[in-house]
Design goal:
The protein is α+β, with helices and mostly antiparallel strands and about 150 residues long. The protein has one domain: Hotdog Thioesterase (Thiol Ester Dehydrase, Chain A, Roll), CATH 3.10.129.10. Helices cover about 25% and strands about 35% of the residues. A hairpin with a 5-residue loop joins β5 and β6.
Amino acid sequence: MHTTTLNKFGDLEEGDSFRTPGITITDSQILAFAGLTGDFMPHHTDEQFAKNLGFRGRLAHGLLVQSLVDGLKNRSMVHFDVVAALNWEAWRFSGPVYAGDRIDAQITIAGKRLTKSGTKGIVTLDIKVMNQHGEVVQEGRNQLMIAA
């Protein structure tokens, strides 16, 4: 991995990898996300309901965690010169995330190609989201269009 910030398509190499900063999930984030999205499933809003299902407490919404990871990606040491975010694919929610958990992500450049115009590139990122115990709680791919 380069030791300097990567910005343009030509700066990136397949296999480059970096770790994002971390963030601790809070109760207020979970409740705010429920209010913002209208997703008031009791798994996220009712502590006892979640415990009755065998969880240790209320669960963070999977999409909340994915959104926070997108923000962590954008706040990391690697800053992409993004033209557009294209998609998230093959995204898996593989473990619970609770208030108090700290997450971060390992991001690897899985692929890159120039667009037909040659002025932009498509970069595919493999992303593994881990909790404070090193357990993968989400993973998948994100594609970005960046300046060439």
